[in-house]
Amino acid sequence: MPATSSQTHPAAADPAASRPDTGTAADTGTAADAGSVGDASAGAVPEPQPQPAPAPPERTTPSPARRWDPPLVTRAEAALAATALSALGAVVVVSQLLDPHPGVRSVAQFAHLACVVVGLGSVLAVDWFGLRWRLGRGSLESVVATARALAVPIWLGLAGLLVSGMLLEPELSAPLTLAKVAMVTVTCLAGVLALAVGRRLAARRSPSPRLVRTGLAVALSSQVAWWSAAVIGFLNRT
Description:
Elements: H1 2-8, H2 10-13, H3 15-18, H4 22-43, H5 75-95, H6 102-134, H7 140-166, H8 175-203, H9 209-237
């Protein structure tokens, strides 16, 4: 009978109910996998990104420091100039207090002339080597060597002029005598400056134009002072 048959096999009445729900299971598994991947990605520590290398600092060109030049004259040379001027002042004062014997005066005249030859001749030799160097016919080393070798005769000649002139009874009221004292003063100062310039030239292979101009001015002043003192001394004795 048909009614009894349908009750005995209920699965046959609904075939879809007898098949497993594969789609639902697949969806469930996919969702579970996605959730697991999402949880794993959420809990993972992010990898550090490489940082860009810092830019090198910009190189700044330092401003050139201003070259400091020491003074031309050292303390020792300044002391020498002060000593020479003090000696000149002492000679002028003492010469007015002395009354030398005529024989002593004659010896003093000869010594005075000899000191002019020694001092002025040495200065001429140094300046001659300096002129040759400026004309390109000599070396700076030869100028420096000559100046060093003749420094002692120059100063001995100047000292002899002072001592012998003290015994010549100079008349300070005469204008020529005062002019000669002024020229001897210039000679003393030029001698000190010549020592300073020579020291600078010896320390440098290529002297600066300023140092060269200073040396030329000192040499010219020295020549004028020496020749003027010699001529005035000659005129005072005739």
